[in-house]
Amino acid sequence: MTIKNEIPNCEYCFVKNDIFRHLTKDETDVLAYVKNCNTYKKGETIYSENNRVAGVYCINEGIVKHYKTGTEGKEQIIRFSKKGDIFGFRSIISGDLACTTAKVIEESTICIIPATHFIKLIKDNSGFAMSVMKLSCKELGFANKYILDIAQKNVRERLAEILLLLHTNFGVNPNNYLKISLTREELAGIVGTATESVIRLLSEFKKDKLIELDKRQIKLLDITKLKRISESY
Amino acid sequence: MTIKNEIPNCEYCFVKNDIFRHLTKDETDVLAYVKNCNTYKKGETIYSENNRVAGVYCINEGIVKHYKTGTEGKEQIIRFSKKGDIFGFRSIISGDLACTTAKVIEESTICIIPATHFIKLIKDNSGFAMSVMKLSCKELGFANKYILDIAQKNVRERLAEILLLLHTNFGVNPNNYLKISLTREELAGIVGTATESVIRLLSEFKKDKLIELDKRQIKLLDITKLKRISESY
DNA sequence: CGGGCAGTTGACCCCGCTCAAGCGCGGTGG
DNA sequence: CCACCGCGCTTGAGCGGGGTCAACTGCCCG
To answer: How far apart are alpha carbons A196 and A192 in whole angstroms?
Structure first.
């Protein structure tokens, strides 16, 4: 982790998350003053499960994975954060320790808002509070949906769903391959299955012309069919 | 659903959830005035998945289950609410439709705070807002944990865990049986498995003297061992 | 008395996990 | 520069957890 010399300016920050639009000019200025900014290399851990979280993180650039570690040491990826997303607020607000580990999977520039200041903003600015609340409620909605999926869909259906999710959340490169690049093991960690199962299913999808594979890159060829699979028709 | 004639008085309501302690006397009075109160019989649906939610519900008495319905029509129970709990706020705050169905499993008396009034309280009272936020963040923490469990634990481990959870959340009757009474199918709907699997495992637990069964009633005999099972030792 | 639902048990079998072996590639050290 | 190592990926074999289907029971209620 390196401390950035040119810190993104909050007022003009182009990735500005919706929640910050509720801040007054003054509040934005103070925020820009009290916040910190670091860059992280791929593989660096921002915070670990069951540890205290320093503050609320706001991604200026890069991708972060959030995962829990199971009894056998297997990672279960809960979600990703990307440019413009904030994270770490669950722990700050609930007062609990981190319930996930946050690890950088693509070189990132991330600003840190000290916990106390974040709480102060919530107390002072009800619009800000409201949109943080919205965020956590949206996340809760996703989590509930994922519980249903893991409990009732089979691995094939879930993998198709995850591919579509990665597609809509991260988009594609000019060559039409998914922008996010994950190891097979990480894919397995999202879907909640064994690495070998992901590999077998990916090559099956490839055989069925649903996707194209080039090393770690994935291109979705038939979104309609993938959707149908993910909805277990 | 019947409209109650004697409405619980908010000011002296003994089940008062923490979040309401932040309200001023005036706010409490207004709340008591604008809220509504109904009783629901076992099996009644308060609201359904993908429908608009009328307001935020506060349970004065009874138990409510929250579930999502899978593609095959199978219920996945996400959580329960009991005396003193509030629910429905996720949908009100995020502005989405309900992501679960709320159904009464034990005759309930439930107050309803109109959505607009609930939002107003959040805007006006930052302490109130903060504790609603805490609530949703806590729920998010539980949901994340459950994703890990369903993804990585086997059915036996999950069932043991759920039994312990029901024990701590609902407690026991004087006869030491769990206070909450669920059908085998509902148990399966929590654990995320088939009804037959729950039945087989329950009788296995019984054989191993971990629990005692009497119809729908369950008594935990060896909490230590159940814990060990749930943690996959 | 009969219908229906919750619960139970047995039989069967398939999905997906585990283990093992082999491959390709990039990095490192001699 | 090459040899080696290790990691990520791939494929095959095998098997067991748990899902499905079917049949039966007991109980509640009309």
So the answer is: 12
Q: Do A147 and B152 touch (CB under 8 A)?
A: no
- How many Cβ atoms sit within 10 Å of the Cβ of residue B227? 13
Contact list in B for residue A192 (CB cut-off 8 A) is: 147, 150-152
CB B194 within 7 Å, strand D: yes
Rounded Cα distance, B45 and A177, in Å? 45
Say if A2-139 and A151-230 have the same CATH topology.
Answer: no
Interface size A-B, in CB pairs within 8 Å, comes to 142
For chain B, how many residues are written? 233
Give contacts of B141 with chain A, Cβ < 8 Å.
90, 94, 96, 99
Residues 6+ apart with CB under 8 A from B197: B155, B188
User: Which of strand C's nucleotides are less than 7 A from any protein C-beta?
Assistant: 6-11, 15-20
| Domain boundary assignment for chain A | 2-139, 151-230
Residue A11 is predicted with a pLDDT of 78
The answer for residues whose C-beta is within 8 angstroms of residue A188's C-beta and 6 or more apart is A194, A195, A197, A198
CA angle A158, B232, B203 (to 5 degrees): 90
Please tell me which residue of chain B has the smallest CA distance to A154: B151
Hey, which CATH number is domain B151-230, 2.60.40.10, 3.60.20.10, 1.10.10.10, 3.40.960.10? 1.10.10.10
- Per-residue pLDDT tens over the stretch B47-100: 999 999 999 999 999 999 999 999 888 999 999 999 999 999 999 999 999 999
pLDDT tens per residue, range A35-91: 999 999 999 999 999 999 999 999 999 999 999 999 888 999 999 999 999 999 999
Residue B147's CB: how many other CB atoms inside 10 A?
23
Provide, in whole angstroms, the distance separating residue A196's CA from nucleotide D13's C1'.
Answer: 14
CB contact under 8 A, B90 and A137: yes
- In chain B, how many H helices and how many E strands? 8, 9
Minimum CA–C1' distance nucleotide for B152: C17
Shortest distance between the Cα of A110 and any Cα of chain B, in A, equals: 22
Model pTM greater than 0.85? Answer: yes
Range A2-139 classified under CATH 3.30.470.20: no
* CA A25 to mean position of chain CA atoms: 28
